[in-house]
Amino acid sequence: MKAAPLLQVENLYVRHPVRGQYLEAVQDVSFEIPEAGIVALVGESGSGKTTLAQAILRLQPAASGQVKLNGENLLAMSGPRLREARRSIQAVFQDPFSSLSPRRTVLQTLTEPLLHFRVAGRRKCEQMAAEALQAVDMDESYLQRYPHELSGGQRQRVALARGLVTEPALIIADEPLSALDVPVQARIVELIRSLRKERKIAFLVVSHDLSVVRRLADHVAVMYMGRIVEYGPAQQVLAQAAHPYTQALLKAVALPDPKQPPPRVLDGEPPSPLTPPSGCVFHKRCRDALERCRHQQPPERSVSGSESRPSQHRVKCHLWDD
Amino acid sequence: MTSMTRVWSQLSRDRAGRIGLIIVMFFLLLAVGAWIGLVGQGWSATEGGRWEPANAEHWFGTNILGQDIFQRSVYSVRTAFEIGFVVALCSTLLGAFLGAIAGWYSNRWVDDGVLWLKGVLDSIPFYLFVAAVAFALQGNPWAMHLAMIATFWTTTGRLVRAEVMKIKSSEFILSARAIGLPDRLILWRHVLPNTSHILLVQATIAFVAAIKTEVILSFLGLGVQDGVSWGLMLAESTQEVLAGHFNNFIAASAMLFALLMGFNLLADAMQDALDPRQSGL
Amino acid sequence: MTDPTRQAVLSVRDLDVVMHGNGQASRVVRKLCFDLQAGEVLALVGESGCGKSKTAEAIMGLIPQRSGTVSAARIELAGSTIHGLPEAAMRRIRGREISMVFQEPLTALDPVFTCGSQLAVLFRRHRGQGRSEARASSERMLQQVGFADVKRVMRSYPHQLSGGMRQRVIVAMAMACRPQVLIADEPTTALDVTTQAQVLQKLTRLGRDAGTAILLITHDLGIVAQYCDRALVMHDGRIVEESDIGQLFSAPVSDYTRELVAAAQGVSL
């Protein structure tokens, strides 16, 4: 019997009003995050991944759908219930230059969520702040510093410390590695892995970088134009990508080995979100597009599964529909 | 680095700024001295003869009523600082508050309301408006101050609004919203402190503008009522100059010029120091 | 290694750059020497802060006097010195003989002019073309960087285009005058994977067709491996290794290079 997932997103829609029309930023997205699981949300600019993450955090309103935290719909909560839930889901943002408040010391930044959620008295909160810093491999002397006195990697670690100081069940990290140098990235990856193992914190990692998927994720959801086009166990999706877009993404990467095949270019542009194409949203750029793809939206199908053991690997593509 | 340390380090490099600071400090000491009763106390005494030239007893001579011009000049420093300080503080605070809520709730009714108010105030010819308010509140010792505050806040408000709109989408603000911090707390703790560079510079500008406006108001008879200021002295001196007595005029103009010059030098240095693009903030 | 029989189109010897920031002086580039051969794609690789961008800015004469001091025994473009030229002379060369593409496409394009007009201006000013001829040349150039709806791009303002599209417009502008040298400083760091492939493919292809030598500055070893002919590895202001791509990855000479390659391969797909 599989354990109930920590977070379950069901049929989520997010719309932005733009000049009288509606822009469908997130369309019918459903996926789940198991307890202490690491799920990567991968997509390029305009895919809606950041909007999705912000909708889960209730930083943006959802048009419809549910986000269930331990079975309860987060989007319907208010008051003290919402406050409790907010304590369980923390956010870590990507830009180490603007993710920390410039006029606040590290100590103030770390204790702010604790004091806001009234976790404990001031003294205890300061202690918890110091412990959170230790967990990210930084010592107490950093508590009195201001963000501009820290390097990019250090700022990112402080942001991570702020994310775990309230002992959340889930941390949503938006591009946690992209602004960092390679050696620093390795430390953050290690950190995330150990936090998952030791503190049982689940992670939703939003990224455009596929190597993040390989290094960190258990599962990956690939987004294109507001929709999840493929979802499955990370290793399986990387090794046997089912959706043409995922395949194109993988083939476009420049590998640091001249003996590896050169990147293959995915021609064209993502269509304007205000005028999405009919049928499958990817069909204009897809090498294997069928006639069907131009008229019908693809249904969700399982990849390499069987009746008795349905696979966790799912894809929305007509090529798999037969 | 906080704003103050940036200003300090800029001043250590900027000679003109240093001179400005020294001048302002000097005048500040005079103002404090006058306020606590050390200097300039004899500004209203009409002991001297009429239009005495500069002598040992009256360093700058006397005016038509036999009042000591030197004493009056020094006491006016206090008046100038008082007006400048009150107007600068209040207009900056008002501008910060209204600008911040307009920027935070931009494109909603709050913003529209503040912008409308700003538009109305800005389209009224400045001195006309100040004079009208001062006239309407005649007799009230704060008439002049209120008039100036009511008009000066708009510039600060506009700048703060723009800055807040920029800051609003920063990730540290997103972080604060993500934990559910209420808007007013976010504005107070995270947004306003990041506008301090604007507020500091605007306050200095308002200070200078207040002093200059007081001069004009005094010419219109709407300035300082109980006390003496350079504006009043200048207004008085228009008659005296025609009779060939320049001491009043020279004393008031020279001191006014010196203080304003000092402030301008200081304000320029501060602006250079706090310009976020120049240094590494 | 460097082929002595090929003409060096850009030659740099003993380049030193000292930056003055906040009263402190720091040497960010130390005695740099290299040659860029005609038609090749040369990578300048290193981690952030190693001085690679400052090297490019120094060559282009873009470091203001009060920010830093540039000194060199030689900076020559096709045999003639460009180091120490007065600003007016440098301005004539920039864009025509030696172009630069920056990382941030947003600030490189003027927001108040359409892309078409910004591109056309280059043809008019540097190639003396008339208005309609310049427009035709601009449209051809945009086609070459892979735009399908060329007319639309010509009419668009920079903010109406996506990051990748803007960067391609900039590549078009940089290559418009078929310069001898193109310096691209992290041109795709801010872009998605698929867009990066698009931009780099177009850039290197255009360069090969026009005979332009490209100095590609990057921290991404994947880009070095897949798009470049030779590489210079930079660390702390100095060049620590210079070799062909094949050798760089199979038999690096310096330890630093070895570490870089190992780290990159460790984190790649």
List keywords for this structure.
heterotrimer, A: 322 residues, alpha/beta, Rossmann fold, eight-stranded mixed beta sheet, four-stranded antiparallel beta sheet, 9 helices, 12 strands, globular, C: 269 residues, six-stranded mixed beta sheet, 41% helix, 26% strand
How would you characterize the largest beta sheet of chain C?
A: 6 strands, mixed
- Spatially, the strands of the biggest sheet of chain C line up as 7-8-9-3-10-11
Compute the CA-based radius of gyration of chain C.
Answer: 18 Å
H and E string of chain C: EEEHEEEHEHHHHHEHEHEEHH
Number of helices of chain C: 11
CATH class of chain C: Alpha Beta
> What is the third-level CATH name, the topology of chain A?
Rossmann fold
Count of beta strands of chain C = 11
Q: Strand fraction band of chain A?
A: 15-25%
Shape of chain A: globular
Detail the topology: elements first, then pairings.
The complex is a heterotrimer of chains A (322), B (281) and C (269).
Chain A: E1 7-18, E2 21-33, E3 38-42, H1 49-56, E4 64-69, E5 72-73, H2 79-88, E6 89-92, H3 106-116, H4 122-135, H5 152-164, E7 170-174, H6 182-199, E8 202-207, H7 210-216, E9 219-224, E10 227-233, H8 234-239, H9 244-252, E11 300-302, E12 314-316
Parallel strand pairs in A: 3-8, 3-9, 6-7, 7-8
Antiparallel strand pairs in A: 1-2, 1-4, 4-5, 9-10, 10-12, 11-12
Helix pairs in contact in A: 3-4, 3-5, 4-5
Chain B: H1 3-13, H2 15-35, H3 69-104, H4 109-123, H5 126-136, H6 143-167, H7 171-178, H8 183-191, H9 196-219, H10 230-242, H11 247-274
Helix pairs in contact in B: 1-2, 1-11, 2-3, 2-11, 3-4, 3-6, 3-9, 3-11, 5-6, 6-9, 7-8, 9-10, 9-11, 10-11
Chain C: E1 8-21, E2 24-37, E3 41-45, H1 52-60, E4 68-71, E5 74-77, E6 80-81, H2 87-93, E7 98-101, H3 105-108, H4 115-127, H5 131-144, H6 150-155, H7 163-175, E8 181-185, H8 193-210, E9 213-218, H9 221-227, E10 230-235, E11 238-244, H10 245-250, H11 255-267
Helix pairs in contact in C: 4-5, 5-7, 7-8
